[in-house]
Amino acid sequence: MPLRRLALVAVLALVVVPVAHADADPASDILYTQRIYLPFFGEKVSDANANTLKKVVDQAWNKGYRVKVALIAARNDLGGVFQLWEKPQTYATFLGRELIFLYKGPLITAMPNGLGVYHFKHSTAAEKAVVQKIKVEPGADGVANAATVAVARLAGIKPPPLPNARGAGGGGGGTPAWQLIVIVVGGVAILAAMLILGPRVWRRRT
User: Fold this and answer.
1) How far is CA 197 from CA 20, 35, 54, in A?
2) How far apart are CA 39 and CA 56, in angstroms?
3) 114-118/107-111 β-pairing
4) What DSSP designation does 108 have?
5) Which region holds residue 167: left if phi is over 0, alpha if psi is between -120 and 50, else beta?
6) pLDDT tens column, 126-150
7) Domain map of the chain by residue range?
8) Residue in 144, 152, 142, 134 with CA at minimum distance from that of residue 175
9) Which of 49, 79, 179, 185 gets the highest tally of CB atoms within 10 A of its CB?
10) What's this model's pTM, rounded to 2 decimal places?
């Protein structure tokens, strides 16, 4: 194989593998820059429930408990790691390890069958005991409300009045489509730049 082609293959390996790994899990992309991942690919959280969760998370941050939350209301919200569906603690560990390059704080994952907690290089035994007692009502709103209660209890905040869960009816709140579009476009742009600049860099060095 010519050296130029070998260099191009190496560049592709360095770029495509990390991008594919990140895009396989939508929540990891959103939580790099946001505090909450709301369901996007399935049933949505209502605006009232989403806003209540956001207020509690903001209060927790202001108090010093800088937590991030991933709401997974449907299997599709796991992207390429759908095998972790209904395994909230396993997913919390998986997601937390994906985020450690930019975020190492506490993380809560909420699914219809329960919640998980992860904190890089910290024991979460006490936190797990707390969230395991929280009941998750049906639907995306139920998942959001359970996460709201979890954040409040772990941050030492009085839980707010919770909006009614709509059950399977769905709501209007969700991770904005533009954020997901930006993620995809950004990944494509990086790949294109590396494909164009990689061979040029190699030629200059040789």
Assistant:
1) 20, 34, 41
2) 18
3) antiparallel
4) E
5) left
6) 999 999 999 999 999 999 999 999 9
7) 3-205
8) 144
9) 49
10) 0.72
